[in-house]
Design a protein that fits this description.
about 80 residues, membrane, mainly alpha, Transmembrane protein, transmembrane, transmembrane helix
Length: about 80
């Protein structure tokens, strides 16, 4: 009879939505990706507005971080 026991907190009547943390962690990854996008955009604007000697890294670093953030957010929200 021990195998037939169900706990109230674990039991879920809908088999299409299992009681797991997977959805929460995917959403958390998506929010992190969005934060990386914001950081990449701010870094792009900040490095492009520097009036000192402009190097290739000033033009490439921000957009690369922005694209990485877009890829993470798109993957975690299921867009890619």
């Amino acid at each position: 009879m021990i195998g037939d026991v169900r706990l109230a907190a674990v039991s879920n009547p809908n088999p299409d939505h299992p009681a797991t943390w997977a959805g929460f962690f995917w959403a958390l990854l998506g929010v992190g990706g969005c934060l990386i996008v914001v950081i990449g955009a701010a870094l792009t604007v900040a490095l492009w507005s520097v009036s000192d000697q402009k190097k290739l890294g000033n033009y490439v670093l921000g957009p690369v971080i922005l694209v990485i953030g877009l890829a993470i957010a798109g993957w975690s929200f299921g867009l890619l």
